[in-house]
Input
Amino acid sequence: MDGHDTAAAAAAADWARAAGISVIADLDELYPGVEALLKNVDYLITSRDIPDRLAGANDLRKSLAAVRSRFGSRLTAATLGEQGVLAWDGTQFHYAPAFCVQPVDTTGAGDIFTRGLSTRCFKAGRCSANSNSHVPPRR
Output
């Protein structure tokens, strides 16, 4: 979900949670009412500035932890463009550098990243809302 139509995304996330389906959100903007969506997101992926804006801080590590704690997601991550991605799972930070490439067009790059992460997560059996994987359970 991207939160653009916040009311619809929040309703869909609520239905998914009720059905035991994990919710992955990819936010690059804080739309009005996004908090209603975030309370039902298991895996939150944002652009670099979103965690700081949600937490009212200016420290990405502290902000990722604060956002995960506030909304109860299993994983909160911020994409860092050509610097890669930083994620917090409630126990430890995970960092992955970006691949060094010469981009021709970056349209859809974030969507592809989110797709790759969710595919890896599902293949590893970690994207079930009821999963007992190494990722701590929702609060």
Observations:
- The CA atoms of residues 42 and 73 lie 4 Å apart.
- DSSP finds five helices and five strands in the chain.
- The beta strands are 24-27, 43-47, 75-79, 85-88, 93-96.
- The helical segments are 6-18, 34-38, 50-55, 60-71, 109-123.
